[in-house]
Amino acid sequence: MHQRAYRDEVFQQAYSLEPFEFCRGCHAPEADSANEPSVAAADVGVSCLTCHVQSGHVVGTASLDRPHAVLGDARMATRAACAACHQFDFPRVPGQPMQNTLSENERSTAAKTECQSCHMEAVAGSDGTKHRSHDFAVLSDPTMLRSAAKITAAMGKSGDLEITLVADRIGHAFPTGDMFRRLEVRATAVDAAGHVLASAKPVHLARTFADQPTPKSADGLYRAEVRDTRVPAPGKGARVAALKIAPSPSATELRWVVAYQRMDHAMAASFGVDPARDEIIVATGVIHLPSP
Predict the structure, then answer these.
(1) CB–CB of 162/240 below 8 Å?
(2) Element (H or E) spanning 189, and its range?
(3) How far apart are alpha carbons 203 and 193 in whole angstroms?
(4) Which CATH class name applies to 142-288?
(5) What is the pLDDT of residue 218?
(6) Local structure of 237: helix, strand or coil
């Protein structure tokens, strides 16, 4: 995903609407953000140089002299190495986070766990020596996504199907990062033959934004977060999604699904993304209904 930061089709469609220098700084960091990136800079995206060459020095977590000099900087093993691109405010309006991942982590019970612990796990090289993986896998690692939260289901006192989500192997809210990522919680009532008899209106766990007037020092509008229904970061409680479903007497079970989605369906359609193909199933389950 780092290499494809600029070439990603969805980013390109969004960028065509808002071609800001602000965007190029993270998505094409090997170019001068004041100008459109060269083909080479666009192709390389976020590269080795982006993190490991600073002020004319090759930088790593520790100083080395072979095969070439490496300047040691302990911050490379901490969240400070990730902050510039994963914690930032909307342009023009300080204090309105566009991505808030590091703050979510710092306010959680996982605050002492650095980003690299999960996203750059120690792996063995061909010579047997250990090093940090640079795959940065998230969307390509469904197992990681499925371990992010403990998810249970039960019938609530009001008759709703209640899906409870609590952060598990994760250091921030779920989902995090891009402002449009969300979880969709849905359920159906089925009969003994598996025929769908009723469907609940899906519940979406996401950040919601609205346009607000900018301060007097700026013109136009800016986006501000007005609601956050995501799974809270570790130590910040649970999220309960209540699904209203009225199964017929012939229903034998309720089947529920929690799916990770890149964006809502309307936005996906405008970007030419197939929501069903793009989503990742995080959890599924069944509640057996008593016989009438």
Answers:
(1) yes
(2) strand 182-190
(3) 26
(4) mainly beta
(5) 55
(6) coil
DSSP for residue 215: P
Strand (E) or helix (H) holding 117: helix 115-119
User: What span, in angstroms and rounded, lies between the C-alpha atoms of 119 and 106?
Assistant: 16
Contact 145, 238 (CB under 8 A): no
The residues spanned by each domain of the chain are 142-288
- Binned at pLDDT 50, 70 and 90, residue 33 comes out as very high
The model carries a pTM of: 0.91
Task: Classify residue 18 by its DSSP letter.
Answer: -
- Identify which of 132, 98, 96 has the alpha carbon closest to the alpha carbon of residue 115: 132
- 203's tokens: 């519940």
Q: Taking residues 18-46, report their average pLDDT.
A: 95
Q: How many CB atoms lie within 10 A of CB 142?
A: 14
Please check whether residue 133 is in contact with residue 123, taking contact to mean a CB–CB distance below 8 angstroms.
yes
**Cis omega before residue 249 (within 30°)?**
no
